[in-house]
Amino acid sequence: MLSLLIEKSQELITIKVLLVSLLGLFVFLIHSITLHQYLRNRSFIVTSMILPVVALVITTVISTNIVLSLGMIGALSIIRYRTPVKSIYELSLLFALITIGIAGGVNIKYSIGLAIFISLIGVATFIMSKFFPNIFLKDYSYDQKYIEVSFKINGPFEKVNKLNNINKWIVSYDEDLENNNTTTFYLRFNNLDEVNKFKEQLFKLENLKILNFSLSNR
Q1: In whole numbers, what is the pLDDT of the chain averaged over residues?
Q2: What integer pLDDT is reported at residue 117 of this predicted model?
Q3: Which superfamily is assigned to 145-217 in CATH?
Q4: Which of 50, 117, 123, 178 gives the lowest tally of CB atoms within 10 Å of its CB?
């Protein structure tokens, strides 16, 4: 009898895992069609399928074990996420994926309802922008293509303070002075010429050790 219950519970969690993963993918595909095509980027698609599953499994594991739940909270609290979230829109989608997973652990109907609601918001926004084009301001951060640059230096932020217009391009930076004595910068440029000019200025700075420099189009 006990073995049958275990098998049924395992089958149920497997179904929930597949379902919440597909719901996350569904939300991102709908929003990529109706709002922003960049959501069909491979990284976003993979994230949309992984994040709800992770949230579901964590919720399921700690739901019946108070000691384990406290340990999990402590473990998660020490994790540092260094990848910057570049907009409140992306942040809300990430929270939606987590909530889809958490709700799936309680009642899968909540996950389905939430996924449909979030997808309908994308569809409604698309329809409104078509029939009422002046209702929204142009969102330059998504409609324009830009180049993202990240680089790491040895030392604090102040070492690059002398660079012209760095505050104009910088998105965020992360200082890790206690452990590695490094600072990682994330910047955004409109074109490659701006990147090359900035890179030239950066590498001319004295007493500055650049550990890595990379760029990507978006």
Answers
A1: 79
A2: 95
A3: ACT domain (3.30.70.260)
A4: 178
